[in-house]
Amino acid sequence: MTTLLFLPSATQGYRWRRIGDDGAVTEGEGVPALADERVVAVAPAESATLHWADLPARSPAQAVAAARLLVAEASATPIAELHVAVGTEGEGERPIAVVGMGAMAGWLTDLAGHGIDPAAILPAALLLPRPDDGYVRGIVAGQALVRSRTTGFADEARLTDVIVGDAPVETLDRATLDDAIADATATPPLDLRQGPFARRRRIGIDWGLVRRLALLGAAILAVTLAIDLVRIAKYSFGADALEVRADALGRTGLARGETVTDVDRQLDERLSGVRGPGLGFSTTVAAVYAAVRATPGTELTSLDFQSNGTLRIGVGAARESLPTDLKRTLEAAGFTVTAGTFQSANGRVTGEMTVQRP
């Protein structure tokens, strides 16, 4: 069910027209008692000026901007004081309605005082059908209206005669007029509730959608957690496999038949036993040979690697100063060197040194 509520004009107050679901029409004066029905307000014809023009159809904002430029050129009233709305009506030129900002604000405030928030506000002249040629005339809610393809206005004798001239004028019968009003009410060709006066949409919470989104979020979280758990388990199994493999490789380095309790510790013990204490035999002897090569005129006459990692070496030198140079070279390599008593015989200097890691 839809109720047309005709806004008051200078000559009459509120009037209404109710169209039932079965097409039955009832009318009355004043503001009717409303239930859960759709309300379309109708602006008085004398309050809304109509124009038609070719406007861009790419977006409503572009169409309104172009319409405001056209209205600014055709109106003496500052454009800032006018509300411009653009509609759609068939093909070709689009209707443009111009209403004072104050009038729009006053209508909506008055309607709100009656507890009414209209679904749309329609200029009265657009209730008449758009003729193919000439003009059509009809009386709607006590107001006489006239319309052509590109005009629409209140029927006033002198003004109508000037505008219509010799063009044909058809007076609509009641059935044709009722059908046209029903069509315009169902699909308004132009709604004044645009821009700053657009109807506010009520935001409702779709709890079903909220629950579905929550379940979807929980599922995504569960899948993500499962992926992380699988990855952690994979890394853990891989680490265990590597540890088992390392233990197996470590066992091959132990003495055959040795009881394995701690592979790492037992390998360290065997390595220490193989290389010797301290830095080990090989490392210590290699450092001593390097020092001898770096000290021309010196040679080793004996080597004795002790169980505590100390290396005793016999040194022969061509000059008295060379044992001291060798000692300093070994100390520079990071060893602690203790020199014994060196003797000179047959043009050679001989003696012993003790080399160990500090």
TrEMBL record:
Keyword Membrane listed: yes
Organism name: Sphingomonas insulae
Protein name: General secretion pathway protein GspL
Cellular localization per UniProt: Cell inner membrane
Domain (GspL periplasmic) ranges: 207-357
Subcellular location, principal: membrane
Family the entry assigns: Belongs to the GSP L family.
Keyword Signal included in the entry's annotation: no
GspL cytoplasmic actin-ATPase-like domain ranges (all copies): 36-152
Topology relative to the membrane: Single-pass membrane protein
Keywords from the named record: Cell inner membrane, Cell membrane, Membrane, Protein transport, Transmembrane, Transmembrane helix, Transport
